[in-house]
Design a protein that fits this description.
211 residues
Length: 211
């Protein structure tokens, strides 16, 4: 094994570690503890942005969402600065961050569902695409009243966009995170079909909020 290969393996290991540890930071859980709210017991039961909005309101939800987006942007940016010559470094860091958010070691590997972190990774890797995607997400959520529709659009469209533009390795890496997120949202998709999924407007009005 050449020294270059050893360097690459060690570097990728550090990228994965940095991305995962940043991704595992969960502000929703911290805020919930401070407010005496059990995110697992109410709403969707998920310690993420959407359920934070449902149980603790928009202010807490926006704060959690910004944190989750920001940590993914930081993971990609930091790793690309530390390892500027490492191919696919940004995508590896971003995927590791998303997986860290979903599977944090200190929460029994039961974290959030990864949408905000995935969106942050998308912004860090291609901010122009992310801006256009935000407009599409806003329209879809406005029309359907379901956040999960925006989630599915994001995790399918970005890998497809990368593949169409010839970035096949990046697209494959992104698909790892996308498939996990789709699997984690399977219950949401079933609830949409049954008409029992939490709607954005109802959550915003505080119908599910813990008093």
């Amino acid at each position: 094994m050449t020294s270059l290969t050893v360097y690459s393996l060690n570097s990728y290991s550090l990228v994965v570690l940095i991305g995962y540890l940043l991704g595992s930071l969960n502000l929703a859980t911290l805020l919930a503890k401070l407010k005496g709210v059990d995110l697992r017991a109410g709403g969707s039961g998920n310690p993420g942005t959407a359920n934070t909005v449902s149980l603790m309101g928009w202010k807490a939800g926006v704060l959690v969402g910004a944190h989750d987006i920001g940590k993914a942007i930081l993971a990609v940016w930091l790793c690309m600065r530390l390892f500027p010559d490492l191919p696919y470094c940004g995508a590896v860091a971003g995927v590791a961050c998303v997986l860290g958010h979903i599977f944090p070691f200190y929460m029994g590997f039961r974290g959030g569902k990864g949408f905000a972190a995935y969106l942050g990774m998308t912004a860090a890797l291609n901010w122009r695409f992310a801006l256009g995607l935000l407009v599409v997400i806003a329209l879809l959520v406005l029309i359907t009243d379901y956040i999960v529709v925006g989630t599915m659009t994001t995790v399918v469209s970005f890998p497809a966009f990368c593949a169409i533009n010839g970035h096949y390795t990046v697209a494959l890496l992104l698909c790892v995170a996308s498939l996990v997120i789709i699997y984690k949202h399977r219950a949401n998709l079933v609830r949409i079909c049954r008409g029992t999924e939490i709607k954005v407007r109802a959550a915003g009005k505080g119908q599910y909020r813990v008093k």
